Input
Amino acid sequence: MFRDRFDAGRQLAERLRDLAGQPAIVLALPRGGVLVGYEIARALRLPLDVILTRKIGAPFNPEYAIGVVAENGFVSVNQEELALGVANEEYIRRVVPKLMAELERRRQLYREGRPLPDLTGKTAILVDDGVATGFTMLGAIAAVREQHPERIIVALPVAPPSTAERLRREVDRLEVLILPEPLDGVGAWYEDFHQASDEEVLELLRRAREMLAELNGRMPETEAS
Output
């Protein structure tokens, strides 16, 4: 088990040490993923930003993912779930605009309305605090791919083997610390899995920006010495 998301981030950073100093950016899925991503960005001295996705929850259980939307307009629905009658097209048409509105709210909150950063020629490191079905991460991958990064890496503390294999086929590199079967929920692998707040996310993004600015400010002096 991990003590908390920060502990998981530090452990993932060890797996990603080869990326220190490379043209890369950590893109975390809010809210919990930002806590993990902060430690990776801090250890590797990389910029930290968010990638915004939302799962499409089933009508009977919002936590049960039947699809995903991403901030660039990407929408994917599990057609097998529709065929089984878990939801219908009318439900999808009704819920997707609400999810998109929430993504826009978060974009204004976390990025002051800015679009995704330019990823051309960079390695995008996508981070969350864990995945079950992987739908939200697949949405993040699709959104990031449209920004034409050099490579896409997914880094996760915990994921079931079947989901990890599905994600592996979509990216250039996958790092997962724990691959339990059954998963029994992402939170089961943390001693502290508190509900991260917007305020906590904003504070970590602010700290990451200040850290990077400080590092960049010291670089000329270091080279001169």
Summary: The first strand starts at residue 24 and ends at 28. The mean pLDDT is 92. The chain is about 45% helix and 20% strand. Residues 14 and 43 are 8 Å apart (CA to CA).
